[in-house]
Amino acid sequence: MAQISVFKGDLPDFVSFKKEVAIDTETMGLNLLRDRLCLVQLSDGSGNAYLVQIIKGVDCPNLKKVLTDKKILKIFHFARFDVAKILNDLGVDVAPIYCTKIASKLARTSTSSHSLKSLCSDLLGVVLEKEQQTSDWGVDELSQAQQQYAANDVLYLHQLKEKLDFLLKREGRYELALDCFSFMSTRAKLDLASFDNPDIFAH
């Protein structure tokens, strides 16, 4: 049974991470510049999920310390959005990064399904419920359903990384994936500077 803890404004001093931490975000929408960051979820890979509600005007030094610690690998699913949103709203550059969506696209070329729900189902046999995806994340008190949804977005990322690392190495694409991950911060900055449309890498 997952242990879910909710904190307002910042991580408490007693929460720490070692080599890897799974991270996700919830926002008021998908527009990086318009829609505010509401929640940052973190998991240590042992069944614990920490949900940090972002409060306007309140700094979060403990959270920022984790996000910028070069000794801790941050595991995301679709890091491009989360990294850009964290940079825009919290003003910190997340590194180093691992993205399960990029890893899946490189390693699982037999499918076009690379959502977190698909990965959990295909690789772990876990069925995720996504009903809360478009709920109001700006509320003062998160419902139990919202807490469970938010926790599920990080609780399985460590396991998925292990499975995807095996596939990437088997297919000879592990180093290519690392190169993609190292570019994620730059990709996020391009998105924030509106170089996503048109994409400068397009024809």
List keywords for this structure.
6-stranded mixed β-sheet, 6 strands, globular, about 15% strand, alpha/beta, Nucleotidyltransferase, domain 5, about 200 residues
Number of domains: 1
**Number of helical stretches of at least 4 residues:** 7
Estimate the mean pLDDT confidence: 96
C-alpha Rg (nearest Å): 16 Å
| Low-pLDDT stretches | none
CATH superfamily, called what?
A: Ribonuclease H-like superfamily/Ribonuclease H
- Biggest sheet features: 6 strands, mixed
Cross-sheet strand order for the largest sheet: 1-4-3-2-5-6
Beginning-to-end CA distance, first to last residue: 49 Å
- Which percent range fits the helix content? 40-55%
Structural notes for this entry:
With 203 residues, the protein is of the alpha/beta class. It has one domain (3-192): Nucleotidyltransferase, domain 5 (2-Layer Sandwich), CATH 3.30.420.10. It is built from 7 helices and 6 strands, in the order ββββαβαβααααα. A 6-stranded mixed β-sheet has the order 1-4-3-2-5-6, sandwiched between helices. The chain starts with a strand and ends in an 11-residue tail after the last helix. 36% of the residues are buried. The mean pLDDT is 96.
What is the strand and helix layout of this fold?
Layout: E1 3-8, E2 20-27, E3 37-43, E4 48-53, H1 61-68, E5 73-76, H2 79-90, E6 97-99, H3 100-107, H4 116-124, H5 144-155, H6 157-170, H7 174-192
Parallel strand pairs: 1-4, 2-5, 5-6
Antiparallel strand pairs: 2-3, 3-4
What's a quick, concise take on this entry?
By secondary structure, the protein is α/β, with parallel strands linked by helices. It is 40% helix and 17% strand. The protein has a 6-stranded mixed beta sheet, sandwiched between helices.
